[in-house]
Amino acid sequence: MVVAVFTGASTGFGLFYRLFYILGLTLILSYIWNWMSLRKLEVEVERRTHRVRVGDMVEERITLRNRSKLPKPTLEAEDLTDLPGYSSGMAVSLTSNSFRSWRTLTPARKRGVYRMGPVRVSNTDAFGIFRRERHFCGTDSLIVYPRTYDIPSFAVPPARLSGESSTRRRTHDLTPHASSVRDYVPGESISRVHWPSTARLGRLMSKEFDLGQSSDVWIFVDLHRDVQAGELEESTDEYAVTIAASLAGKYLEQNLPVGLIAYGDRRYFLPADTGAGQFDRIMEFLAMSKAEGTTALESALPREEQIWGYHSSLIVITPSNRPEWATAIREITKRRVRVAVILVDGQSFGGLFETEAVIPHLYEAGVAPYLVRRGDDIPVALDHVYTSPELRAAEELEDAEVML
To answer: Can you give the residue range of the structural domain that contains 356?
Structure first.
């Protein structure tokens, strides 16, 4: 427009003034059209999934309604979310008083807590001069839990407790082990009342219970950022968390107290407990954890060493190749803690480090590890401990000599 006015003033040629008027009118009409396109527009979002596991489908339905008599030919709608790999964008055209609805199905590819929404609707005029957008609806949270598998053949040596000793841990569940009494709380079951103490003290007293004789199972997940490899569901941290969730479900089904420690973006700690509520808490912690830890495994294990005793079984899940943490494992086994190690092979996920390099050090510590590689069937990989090719050849030779 400036060039048209300048040229028209310089040459006196009226065509340039007409061009100026046409451009000005186009500019005004484009702005009005762009502004009108987002008026009297209604957006509805139906988010049917709020809690899923990795691999499950995230379902959503978006509906746009045009309440205006003017058509809206060029609308772009998209749900703004930070869920990896999720896209619900759609370019739609609406006639007067019409609507358009579509459903999206996208697999959840990584655990975490994500934001769904709001819906952004944008419009560009026919000449692409102006772009305008509006946000509709609110935001919802989506929790993506890790996968779980049935792992029947995995076995960690159980801790053994001598005599009738028990781990003194309070529980709200009724068990055969009454440990103490306290004042009765209105609403409690009458079966919890301890009648001898009630008669002696002159007021209602309730029994408190222990979990009784038990072997704690602790799951330690290494989420140190320097030892991770891979992306999304095909990553070392996703495999490690999946294994941890599967083992937690396995031992909780056996009514064993299970505790969780994970060093990720922060320290995640759950004391050992039983029941379905404990499994839900473990799944939530594992979903929130991020592989952004700054504490290496060889530093984290000594920090938590006082938690485990002769009644504890410890399962360490890590892709780390550093031999220093194998030394920490040796010190823990000296305290009669039963230890199992599951290695997630970082090199198979594209990492530059060789996780298998730590295996000889674990053998020296008296621990035969399990090894899981990318693409492995996890229940099958945890069916047996890893055997090096040299040791396997020696066993086959020994078997052959026995047969001879």
So the answer is: 216-399
Same domain for 70 and 140?
yes
Distance CA 402, CA 141 (A): 62
Instruction: Give the phi and the psi of residue 64 in degrees, each rounded to 5.
Output: -110, 130
Q: Are 251 and 219 in contact (CB under 8 A)?
A: no
Sheet architecture: strand order including 258-263:
267-273, 258-263, 216-222, 312-318, 338-344, 370-372
The CA-atom distances, in angstroms, between 138 and each of 41, 44, 243, 305 are: 16, 10, 35, 46
Length of the chain: 404
Q: Give a yes or no: residue 361 inside a domain.
A: yes
Q: Is the pLDDT of residue 330 over 70?
A: yes
Helix intervals (H) in 183-342: 195-201, 236-253, 276-288, 297-303, 324-333
Give the model's confidence band at 167: pLDDT under 50 very low, under 70 low, under 90 confident, else very high.
very low
CATH code: domain of residue 272: 3.40.50.410
Single-letter amino acid code for the residue at 81: T
- Over residues 24-53, the pLDDT tens digits come to 888 888 888 878 888 889 999 998 888 999
Q: In what order do the strands lie in the sheet with 99-107?
A: 41-47, 57-66, 99-107
Task: Specify the higher pLDDT residue, 357 or 392.
Answer: 357
What is the structure's pLDDT at 380? 92
Contact 256, 217 (CB under 8 A): yes
Same domain, 115 and 188: no
- pTM equals 0.76
Question: Do 274 and 374 have their domain in common?
Answer: yes
Is it true that the peptide bond before 118 is cis, omega within 30 degrees of 0? yes
